[in-house]
Write a structure and sequence with these properties.
- The protein is an all-alpha fold and 128 residues long.
- The protein has four helices and no strands.
- Helix 1 runs antiparallel to helix 2 and helix 2 runs parallel beside helix 4.
- The protein starts with 7 loop residues before the first helix and ends with a helix.
Length: 128
């Protein structure tokens, strides 16, 4: 769990990123201007930077890295498959755009974070 003092920056960036991903999903489906390419580049760049901050600030010694890598991989896999399968069932009620945006924003946050933690863990293992 990301609660210790050395992980406070990562925990805050993680929470901010998840909240931002949900807000992006909601706003992109409600406000057409929000989903324009020019604006979304900036928003998704912020999510990538938050993902890198989260990944860089995770303590890679012990169970923190294992727990984060497993949950991060699950979130990435489920978000990718969710974009394909859940969205097709939500087309009839008009919620597919919101679900697609939320899943895409979560992928944008978690992929860099998971890659950073995986690289740090590999380097930590090679120092043994």
């Amino acid at each position: 769990m990301i609660k210790s003092s050395e992980n406070s920056i990562g925990a805050k960036a993680f929470l901010l990123g998840v909240i931002l991903a949900i807000i992006i999903g909601i706003l992109a489906s409600i406000i057409p201007l929000f989903s324009t390419t020019q604006y979304s580049k900036v928003v998704y760049f912020i999510l990538i930077v938050l993902g890198i901050i989260v990944g860089a600030s995770i303590n890679t010694s012990g169970r923190d890295s294992q727990t984060f890598l497993i949950t991060g991989a699950v979130i990435v896999i489920v978000s990718k498959f969710g974009m394909e399968s859940v969205i097709s069932s939500l087309i009839g009620i008009g919620a597919w755009n919101m679900a697609s945006s939320i899943f895409g924003a979560l992928l944008t946050l978690f992929v860099p974070a998971t890659i950073m933690v995986a690289i740090k863990t590999v380097f930590g293992l090679s120092k043994v």
